[in-house]
Amino acid sequence: MTNEQKNQIIRLRHDGFGYKAIAQALCITDDAVKSFCRRNNLSGAATKDVSLVPHFCVECGKEVLQTPHRREKKFCSYECRMLWWKHNPPQVKRSMTMLTCQCCGKEFYGYESAGRKYCSHACYIRARYKGGDLHE
Description:
The protein contains five helices and four strands, in the order αααββαββα. The protein has helices at residues 3-14, 19-26, 30-39, 78-87, 121-128, and strands spanning 55-56, 63-64, 96-100, 107-111.
């Protein structure tokens, strides 16, 4: 847990938020928040509604302004999102699947969401130009 997260926990507990609400806002476990609060005499009853909890950037910890009725934002900026993706590759939800090349029929791994059809640039050229060579 970072010092920024600790300061945010203290601020949110003083504002009356519960362990679960704080944990969701900071993307850490309920038990981590609970044990930190108990060690620092911040335990007690929560008084605020969970929906009023401020959201913080997963990478840098800055508060992220949310747009009502939209999907929850997890990052304060594009730069923070790219840094987090770079430092946490296993947690990025991109899965490679086995695809089949439409030109040669060879199987290859690729991101299905990327719309790949060919295993290589050579197969793309072969399919695009009907087997012809560009330099003929």
